[in-house]
Amino acid sequence: MKKAVVIGAGVSGLAAADRLLAEGWEVTVIEARARVGGRLHALEYAPGVPIDLGPEFLHGGAEEVKRLLDSSEVISPSESAKIFWKGNLSEAGNSLNFLDDAMKKLRCLKGEDAPVAELFSRLKLDDFQEAELRSYIEGFNAIDMNHASQCAFQREIAGGADDMEVARLKRGYGSLLPVLSKRWEKNFSLCLEAWVNKIEWEAGSARVHFRAGEEARHVEAPFVLITLPPTILADKNKINLDPELPEHRLAAQALPLGAVHKVVFVLDEPLWDTGDKDLAFLHSPGLIFGTRWIWMVHDKPIFVCWSGGSRAMQLNGLPREEVIRLALADAATSLKITPAELSPKIKQSYYHDWMLDPFSLGAYSYVRLGGLGSRAALAKPVAGTLFFAGEATADDGSAGTVHGALRSGHRAAEEMMEAEARR
Ligand SMILES: Cc1cc2nc3c(=O)[nH]c(=O)nc-3n(C[C@H](O)[C@H](O)[C@H](O)COP(=O)(O)OP(=O)(O)OC[C@H]3O[C@@H](n4cnc5c(N)ncnc54)[C@H](O)[C@@H]3O)c2cc1C
Known about the structure:
By secondary structure, the protein is of the alpha/beta class. It has a domain at 3-43 and 173-256 and 365-422: FAD/NAD(P)-binding domain.
């Protein structure tokens, strides 16, 4: 009876599986990719030099993540960052105070729901300040301002989603995966490269259909946890639900994943002096890759170029080489050197196209205008049989983060255990 199928081996699915295994459940995880982690995509340039193509920072405390790791793994914000602003190497100072104040004011504005873009006219900013604030919000939250819900956005930033104080992990987010897989020896099976396309269910049991290579297979269980990104669950052609779940489908359709393009370069020498800090941000609101940061790891400078929101949408569909070329060109512009001068300093480039990735179709979720309440609706269990987790189901301001995904997996595992106890 204590038997569950978990669809998706991202952070939420792995966290739920771990919690269920700890309570003696038998768990099968079905994952479309050839690896676990989902949007947590951690590589290494060399031993101890992490390259995180997905998440990299711990936002808003992220206590759940910290609790799983040894405290020596976490680099706290006060030890690390130095922030440069306006595309030059003078320190941020007043710009950050302005942003902090503007975000506080944004949180407090009241009114009917409207697109996030309409919030700015109510703050009485000059053109330059508005451009800075837009660039900051789009870059950080990866939202499409013309379609994102103002009320949902305000709730989420009040929950700490935009916390500027960010911690990092010494060995990158990859260090989380062994912790989440430590109970896999018993009662556990993992099917990789297994693409779920149909879930047939009735109260008390469900049958999950998937393709593994050319083979069509299925597995049955009394409890099924669905951790698919909402972009996948929204589409009837990708996931056939039988019988249909109209409220969940509608909720998923109201939770798009925003656009992010992140290019990581390993350099042979730092591009600018980070002083006594090992991390420095460089913001240039006018550029497509509006944010860069450099991180010294074992004397290797890791240089990250980040584009989010509507600017990032301009890059959607471009070939990998072109995205990398544009990241390099913007980096050179912001450093007031030519791409030809920057190019020879690059030892290796990394990029993953999250927008075209068929198993995510975007970076992380935001609430579309008209979609208030969608996160809670997506999280709602069905007939004590189907359960839902994933960052997009986090209704407490932690959506779009690793700790939000982790928390949602734990929440869904608890719901399953309660349902099992009631049967
Ligand atoms: C570029 C980028 C940067 C980020 N930066 C940060 C950061 O700094 N800090 C932070 O906290 N968060 C960050 N995030 C967000 C964070 O990575 C996510 O919130 C979190 O990893 C989501 O986990 P999840 O389990 O909800 O979803 P996922 O990781 O997407 O897991 C869902 C799983 O379902 C699988 N799947 C999809 N379709 C199917 C199918 N049909 N059949 C079977 N399996 C399927 C997927 O392959 C995936 O493994 C970032 C994300 C991106 C993309």
